[in-house]
Amino acid sequence: MYKAEIYITLKEGVLDPQGSAVEKALHSMNFRGVQEVRIGKFMQVVLSADSLEAANQQVKEMCDSLLANPVIEEYTFNLQEVEK
Amino acid sequence: MYKAEIYITLKEGVLDPQGSAVEKALHSMNFRGVQEVRIGKFMQVVLSADSLEAANQQVKEMCDSLLANPVIEEYTFNLQEVEK
User: Fold this and answer.
1) How far apart are CA A33 and CA A68, in angstroms?
2) Which H/E stretch holds residue B9?
3) B18-24 LR contacts (CB < 8 Å, sep 24+)
4) Local structure of residue B26 (DSSP, 8 states)
5) ipTM of the modeled complex
6) Which of A51, B9, B37, B70 qualifies as a FRET site for A77, CA 20 to 30 Å off?
7) Phi and psi torsions of B75, nearest 5°
């Protein structure tokens, strides 16, 4: 069994209205040092696969076809074997 | 300048309907090995602070007071100095 931790972020240059809203909220709460906030997604996927390589390939395909929007987002992930 | 990478996840035991929906979608796309999907948030915050310790304290306060919902979510973060 493998566990993937996937980080999906907006590509640089893509506007992040949610991040801007949180940034303004933080300023209004007196966190004046905040310069930038970007918000993305963090996904944990547990999957069975024959090998680490096969799991890696599957996670890549999932990201490309469903989890991330390749037009505006990019992703990275790490993968480890887990017991379960 | 410091950059915090914050990972916010639902506490164990809290239902994750978004994760369940993605899990079903992956199954229907023939990713049959998928056992569990949990979806959280990944935030990047750039902030200025006098020291790493001060930045750490600020990020903790932000998470506790705005970024995470302590009732159902938990968070971890890492912090590093960046040039900018």
Assistant:
1) 31
2) strand B2-10
3) B19/A43, B22/A43, B22/A66, B22/A67
4) H
5) 0.90
6) B70
7) -140, 155
Residues 41-80, chain B, touching A (beta carbon < 8 A): 41-49, 58, 61-62, 65-67
B30 part of contact set with chain A, CB < 8 Å: no
What number of other Cβ atoms are within 10 A of residue A42's Cβ?
20
Ordered by where they begin, the domains of chain B are 2-81 (3.30.1280.10)
Give residue-wise pLDDT tens across range B28-73: 999 999 999 999 999 999 999 999 999 999 999 999 999 999 999 9
**Per-residue pLDDT tens digits for A44-53:** 999 999 999 9
d(CA B62, CA B2): 14
B25 reaches A (C-beta below 8 A): yes
